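Protocol step 4 of 5: obtain the predicted structure for the target chain.
Materials: sequence only (see below). No template structures provided, no constraints applied. The aim of this step is simply to have a reference model before the mutagenesis design in step 5. Sequence pasted as it appears in the construct record:
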Amino acid sequence: MAKEMIAMILAGGQGSRLYALTQKLAKPAVPFGGKYRIIDFPLSNCVNSDIDTVGILTQYQPLVLNEYIGNGQPWDLDRLHGGVHVLPPYQQASGSDWYKGTANAIYQNISFIDRYDPKYVIILSGDQICKQDYSDFLRFHKEKDAEFSVAVMEVPWSEASRFGLMVTDEDDKISEFQEKPKNPKSNLASMGIYIFNWDILKKYLTEDEADPNSENDFGKNVIPNLLRDGRRMYAYHFSGYWKDVGTISSLWQANMEVLDPSHSGINLFDENWKIYSRNSGKPCQRIGNDATIVNSMISEGCRVDGTVNNSILFPGVVVEKGATVEAAVVMGGTIIKAGASVKHCIVAENVTIEEGATVGAMPEGGLNIAEPGDVATVGSGVVIGKGATVGPKAMVSSDVKDGEEQW
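Step 4 output (structure tokens):
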């Protein structure tokens, strides 16, 4: 049975700007929002948009991501015909190669897409936090009789040169594409979310692969080639929540916005658009008699006897008596011992912060989510020794000895 539209999620990126958080972890597998991983958002969007066939293209450090996705059951994607499929690079008759670019990654999986004979293919990023109805995007694509559509958001003109920009007419038809221009003609930034007619995409992927000078990239090669040939290309205006969490500060900021859904636009309590995730299997959290918790999210399996303010604790985090956690993102399995101070930082999974240690510091002038400034970061499995200090600019990926300072 042919599918009307299938989704292909690009999830092979290294996420190098997240430094210590992605040394052993693919960026889409980075924890987010208390109980989720970044990949949960495009997967949940697909299910909520009635897309039941999803290919996930993995490459860098895929072990945790592959294990987490499993058979797709948490997202109702454990299907006999369709469902979720993890698609790493593989050896072919013509040889083997890593995915060389976003377009090449899809090209190497043409046979997978052909199995479902779709009319449309939606290309998604596996490393963005976004709540979007792809069925509404598809309706737009059909109404315009488009061959290619891209989701765009208006950004401040002062920031436009940081993005790939779509120049459009009054009917949203794309007339020009600018890749991070010095002098932008538009402030419609591409979200990196595309819908193609499959016959058009297949044709241009094949031509792009045959070009020895191509970088095999959608933004640098495929989209300009579509424009060159005068294809029917349209920009779909998206007005919901979308954030590229490609840096430490943007990841911290997005987590803090979860704590203020009425203003930020990201509401994880929305019953009409649930974000699904794999259950940690941990028991309920326990809040001790001496605990103080203000405006925070405390996940299952946490044990809190200290003070937690404006923070997110992932499953299994322990905050001992006398410890203080403020404006922090603390990932699963981390232990914060008595008297420790953890502020304005991201702490990865399975970290131990010993008694009296200090990680991060609140910015001078108080907390400012809009301008997060320097956010301290501790990588997974690290031990911060007794009385050690990790400064607000520090990025720690190996153990810190007792009393040692990291700045």
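Step 4 remarks: The first helix runs from residue 40 to 48. The chain has two domains: 5-258, 281-396.
Proceed to step 5.
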